């Protein structure tokens, strides 16, 4: 699985004119299931993200996790993280999981984060969404369980 993790002061996701997920301080996670991924990758990625030390401690060092701070996580499915741009100018997405597998792994990932004690808000899998965020730092981290 792939994820782009952003430390945020606030983030929200809207479908149409309805806000369906919203957090204050925490992490915005854009996540993509890749072809061949399983529930094991969901669990690995969730555990890694929950423990990433991206938040400042008393000495202003990035030394605290979202679990340590009591922050929340907004998870948005984004199959375009699977983009292959190695040939031409039109990205290919053949390395992304099928929509059925992608949905199941997205839901697994969200359950894993919640099971770790995090407050989890979500987007809507497969929907055309508008994502708003205030990137804190900015801090943006790329994760890939396949590497």
Can you put this structure into words, describing what you see?
- This protein is of the alpha/beta class and 147 residues long.
- The chain has a single domain, classed as D-tyrosyl-trna(Tyr) Deacylase, Chain: A (3-Layer(bba) Sandwich), CATH 3.50.80.
- Helix content is 23%, strand content 39%.
- Strands 1, 2, 3, 6, 7 and 8 form a six-stranded mixed beta sheet that branches. The protein has a two-stranded antiparallel sheet with strand order 4-5.
- Helix 3 links the parallel strand 6 and strand 7.
Order of SSEs, N→C? EEEHEEHEHEE
User: Considering the protein shown, what is the CATH homologous superfamily?
Assistant: D-tyrosyl-tRNA(Tyr) deacylase
Shape: globular
The CATH architecture is 3-Layer(bba) Sandwich
CATH domain class: Alpha Beta
Count of extended strands: 8
- Which whole number gives the mean pLDDT? 96
Mind summarizing the main beta sheet?
6 strands, mixed
Termini gap = 10 Å
Total helices: the number is: 3
